[in-house]
Amino acid sequence: MNLPKSEEQLMQILWQKEKAFMKDITEAYPEPKPKATTIATLLKRLLTKEAIGFTQFGNVRQYYPILKKEDYFSSHFNGMIKNFFDDSIPQFASFFTSNKNMTEEQLLELKRVVEEQIKARKK
């Protein structure tokens, strides 16, 4: 699922809060806050896309994410690797480690994480 920035920003709020009423969502936005009608439109779009759901309390709705943040991120990450690095994770890793101003400590931490994953997959 691909979301425009405005919908993604609202999803970030719901992922953080897990459940939120319109008032909670509005308060979570940074200044300048969007109008309530704009937020309502974004919520409607996300409902249509089945990215969020809601529980009705009288005439008030409490919204919650259906789309998991990890799934959304993974989908975008995999698409980026496919589109920009010819579906090659080694190409991505090479680009990431050589073009990012990573300290030696950060590179060693990355190496440790990769080695742990290798060990875990051998079990």
Descriptive account of the structure:
By secondary structure, the protein is mostly helical. It folds into 2 domains: 5-65, Winged helix-like DNA-binding domain superfamily/Winged helix DNA-binding domain (Arc Repressor Mutant, subunit A, Orthogonal Bundle); 88-123. Helices cover 64% and strands 11% of the residues. The protein is elongated and about 55 Å long. The chain starts with a helix and ends with a helix. The model has no long low-confidence stretch (mean pLDDT 91).
Reading side by side through the largest sheet, how are the strands ordered? 1-3-2
Range of helix content: 55-70%
The poorly predicted ranges are: none
Report the radius of gyration as a whole number of Å: 19 Å
Averaged pLDDT: 91
- State the name of the first-level CATH class of the largest domain: Mainly Alpha
* Corresponding CATH architecture of the largest domain: Orthogonal Bundle
Largest sheet: 3 strands, antiparallel
* CATH fold title of the largest domain: Arc Repressor Mutant, subunit A
Per DSSP, the total helix count is 6
CATH superfamily of the largest domain: Winged helix-like DNA-binding domain superfamily/Winged helix DNA-binding domain
Order of helices and strands: HEHHEEHHH
What is the number of beta strands?
3
